[in-house]
Amino acid sequence: MAKIAIFNQKGGVGKTTTALNLAGALYRRNNSTLLVDMDPQGHLTQTHPQPNLDSAKSLFGFYQDNLPLRELIVHWDNVGDLIPSNKQLIKVDSIFGRGPAILNRFGIGLTALKKEHAVDNIVLDCCPYLGVLSLGAIFTADLVIVPIASDFLSLEGAKKVEKTLTAIEPFLKRRIARRYLMTRYDRRRNMSAQVRNQALEAFGNDVLDTLISENVTVAESPSNKQDIFSYNSNSVGAINYNALLDELIAQDLITHMSATQAA
Description:
Layout: E1 2-6, H1 15-27, E2 33-38, H2 43-47, H3 59-65, E3 74-76, E4 80-83, H4 92-96, H5 100-116, E5 121-126, H6 132-140, E6 143-149, H7 152-172, E7 177-185, H8 190-203, E8 207-213, H9 216-223, H10 228-231, H11 236-250
Parallel strand pairs: 1-5, 1-6, 2-4, 2-5, 6-7, 7-8
Antiparallel strand pairs: 3-4
Helix pairs in contact: 1-11, 5-6, 7-8
């Protein structure tokens, strides 16, 4: 079971889109995936086709009421499963503080889940600020993917993530695998190339070769309650996210059970 956190300390960089479409790409290759919406804004949860998910059966229930994670799972056709968010998650930091017990609690919950619910990959859609939820995801993650929209503010957010990961590593006693993903990339704009070059200077080989192009179907698909493959499997966005999965597999960064393309 690979645990992949999608995180940047800036919003609007394609974090939720990447979480959703990575899960969609895995689904089409017969890999089971659990998405966890760890953002109180709940954008991933809002994309789920079932309206008005039970607010009591959200990730907040795990923290507030000690509900097992397996009891919070809802199915998502063509994607896998989801543990939804709730706006009450914003209270987690103020209620529980930031001690080691609360920071490790989510990882312990995933360990218990693994014994009861078989899943190949878990994709964690993190909130864009550093608190209990994001730190809990990073502490348990095997890989952190940092989306960088092709602008300088997104790059600055990624640099903050790098500093955060470096600071955490002595406590965890391991290097946190991370990869930086260029999103909203427009080859017609000089800024896109400039930001990518600066990312390469800052992060070196941790920058992925895959580019997620600025593409209208990537923006449209969530509003239609679909991942990019369900919405338009022939789009540039679908090609890009398939390439992302191929690159992660090639680097042995993601659990991949079958190369068979799902029908």
